[in-house]
Design brief:
Two copies of one chain form a homodimer. In chain A, helix 5 packs antiparallel against helix 9. The first copy, chain A, folds into two domains: about 180 residues, 2-keto-3-deoxy-galactonokinase, substrate binding domain (Nucleotidyltransferase, domain 5, 2-Layer Sandwich), CATH 3.30.420.300; about 120 residues, 2-keto-3-deoxy-galactonokinase, C-terminal domain (Nucleotidyltransferase, domain 5, 2-Layer Sandwich). Chain A contains eleven helices and 15 strands. In chain A, the strands form three sheets. In chain A, strands 3-2-1-4-8-7 form a six-stranded mixed β-sheet, covered by helices on one side. The first copy, chain A, has a six-stranded mixed β-sheet with strand order 6-13-12-11-14-15, sandwiched between helices. Chain A has about 325 residues and is an alpha/beta fold. Chains A, B: InterPro entries: ATPase_NBD, DGOK, DGOK_C, DGOK_N.
């Protein structure tokens, strides 16, 4: 096998493992729902080795990991690196797994210790390292949608500042636990970026972001008065929340007008692309999976992991 | 007994019953947690009669009811009256309980059928009728904090328009079901209006209401980075959400500068009074219980319920 390194994205609920070759290309991949929640406190090593065994990976193949496995409730804590955080500083903060025969290191998250706008990320910093590597660019604004969306300012290769928008989680808790659960119903509904309701509610939020909590109840009232169907309610709520995030974040971060790097995948990608379009914001899409792999590989290279025999530093 | 009428506020989770005399003064009161959720589908009559029996109320004493008992999932549906809704129009929409020996009527809610801003209220309209009666005023802006806060424009004695802010419910679902549950903890914390954290987070929201979802995660980050304690997290979340409501609503409703009628009671009253103070908004406080009783009594009088024998119309 010509694998150079194992690259692992160990999130809260999901685990993804890639074998990468000398150039960072994917040789093999495994996915499971053995995220941090399932693996802690002491299942990490066993789970990883189990997957690597199934892949036939050599026992001495090094592994570079990012994500919640490095949190306080994870495998080994990789303490936050503080903003402003260079990619090299992040790589240097990788924490080894003590007592492991295999060279395993977990990348740190990043903390913004500004008392006015404290914030944390863990896992996204690796995607940001991947973007730097993929775009060959030192300065850009990045939007990273998700349960906790991140908007990040990269300046001269360092994370200069960032903000978190709880957009995905707001959708979940409102749909699942608030009166809006009566509007959205028990089944989950895929929201389409071409859905006129998504686009209208998104545009209304973009035009007037100060009114999100006022508009939330209109979804409930629409169910009662205007026969809004569950799929429509999901589209409305999604448009409302994504529009509010893009309105607020672009005002703060995208002032220069340069295209925003949009790191999204799956169902969120077309929704955010639609919101950017409605907002008149230019963007450069990057596939989230590609970004994290590129970041893990950049970290491994920087740390000299999986150096071919006889290679110079 | 000199009781004229039974006045009932039948909410989702709570039931309150008053015996009122000829002038609307309280002769007796009972409270229980037999709200609509506990009473439906067919326990309403039994529960009401049980309480009136315990109070020694005459079997022919009429009863006027407001609240969720008149909703579709309640005792008898009292269909919404549409905006613009006069107090007389609301009273006239009272639905009788068929087949009851006692004269029992349930007041309707109010619906705003504007497709751009659909909205509904049920129970608050009765408090608004009470305010008209207490203040002797025809035109005013009313703020009614709660699980679903209402801001209402009363013009020439009619409900001209209103908006709902899910402030109380947002607090509950975020504290109970989001990552902020780790910040607030399992116990509930009383928030004081003099708490500097409440005031600071309230002021920040007032200054910049477009950023509520960005600020939510800062509570989580503050727990991780700044040792924010659970009681402090509760104060921060409360200030953030109440400030956002007051900022948005006052911009829409309180443009004239006339004092806003603040109908609050219990723990919410000092918090909203503090928010109004920070916003530089004048207000006129009215006790919520007094408002609902006055509204129920005004309805009973208008409908001729409990007219003394020989009284002229």
């Amino acid at each position: 096998m010509s694998a150079r390194v194992v690259a692992v994205d160990w999130g809260t609920s999901r685990l993804r493992i890639w074998l990468l070759d000398q150039d960072g290309s994917v040789l093999a991949e495994r996915r499971s729902d053995e995220g941090m929640l399932a693996a802690r406190p002491d299942g990490f090593g066993r789970i990883l080795e189990g997957h690597l065994d199934a892949l036939g990976a050599p026992v001495d193949l090094p592994a570079i990991i990012c994500g919640m496995a490095g949190s306080r409730q994870g495998w080994v804590e990789a303490p936050y690196v503080a903003v402003p955080a260079s990619m090299q500083g992040i790589f240097a903060g990788a924490a080894p797994i003590p007592g492991s025969r295999r060279d395993i290191r977990i990348l740190p998250g990043v903390a913004q210790r500004d008392p006015a706008s404290p914030d944390v990320m863990r896992g996204e910093e690796t995607q940001l390292a991947g973007i730097a590597s993929l775009l060959g660019s030192d300065s850009h604004i990045v939007c990273m949608p998700g349960t906790h969306s991140k908007w990040v300012e990269i300046a001269d290769g360092s994370i200069a500042g960032f903000a978190t928008y709880m957009t995905g989680e707001l959708f979940s808790v409102l749909a699942g636990h608030s009166i809006l659960s009566h509007s959205l119903g028990a089944e989950s509904h895929a929201v389409s970026a071409t859905d006129p309701l998504f686009r209208r509610w998104c545009q209304d939020s973009l035009s007037d972001p100060g009114d999100v909590s006022a508009r939330l109840f209109r979804i409930r009232a629409s169910t009662l008065l205007l026969d809004l169907k569950p799929g429509q309610a999901a589209a409305a709520l999604s448009g409302l929340l994504i529009g509010a995030e893009v309105a607020s974040a672009s005002r703060r971060f995208a002032k220069s007008g340069a295209p925003v790097v949009l790191v999204a995948s799956g169902a969120l990608r077309p929704l955010y692309e639609a919101a950017f379009g409605l907002a008149g914001l230019e963007f450069h899409p990057v596939e989230a999976d590609e970004a994290v792999r590129a970041g893990l590989f950049a970290a491994a290279r920087h740390l000299g992991m999986g150096e071919p025999a006889g290679a110079t530093a």
